[in-house]
Design goal:
binds zinc ion, elongated, 3-stranded antiparallel β-sheet
Length: 80
């Protein structure tokens, strides 16, 4: 099951589990749409893999299986 990290690890924008603005790589590195587009051009800065739209978890599913609350920040050259 996806971890659904709660924030962009670059700019710390909130990305709730039902947000359509979240992108992830295969390791679940998580970014907002703006960072993925303008800073990383669709490529994960950690692993080099493709960033793709994170599937949303909505309604009762999100209630029963809440998103992670552990905020993850990582320094990237493009975030400065
Ligand atoms: Zn961001
Ligand atoms: Zn990655």
């Amino acid at each position: 099951m996806l971890e659904l990290r709660p924030n962009c690890e670059c700019c710390d924008a909130d990305l709730p589990g039902d947000s359509a603005q979240a992108l992830i790589c295969s390791f679940e590195c998580t970014f907002c749409q703006a960072c993925a587009d303008t800073r990383f051009h669709g490529q994960c800065p950690n692993c080099g893999g493709q960033l793709t739209a994170r599937p949303t978890r909505v309604g009762q599913a999100l209630v029963n299986h809440p998103a992670s609350t552990q905020r993850i920040r990582k320094p990237h050259a493009a975030c400065a």
